Amino acid sequence: MKGKSRFSEKYGPDERPDPLIKEQILKRSKKDELACAVAFEIAYKLGGKPSEVGKTADLLEYRLIKCQLGLFGYKPGHSIVEAKLPENNEIVDAIKDGMVNDRLPCKTAWEIAARFDVHKMTISSACEAMSIKIKPCQLGAF
Length: 142
Hints:
Blueprint: H1 19-28, E1 33-35, H2 36-46, H3 50-59, E2 63-65, H4 89-98, E3 103-104, H5 106-116, H6 120-129, E4 133-134
Parallel strand pairs: 1-2, 3-4
Helix pairs in contact: 1-2, 2-3, 4-5, 5-6
């Protein structure tokens, strides 16, 4: 994948990968790909922000895969989330209340999942059913 990717173009020419994050990514990734869950583990381990891990992955031209909301990084179709409204209407209300500029931030989706003790993909499935885009990604993928 290196050479084909252009993830680093999101940043200025003077941006450099964080050395501590880079070390962890190199240790914990496979085939120039970094799973979302692993990126979050690295952020928590180093006491940093997930966005910094995402930025470092971009600067290394690593592809982020296996979004914990099921939105990207799965083969063959890239997304595994299916449109389905939850039985609990309070979740739907929480999604609507959490929207910013007609979108639900990824972080808010995670918070709603934790609040209602449901899987993160329950929230993304509801968003799909409601035609609500989840953005921005905590890792900066979208």
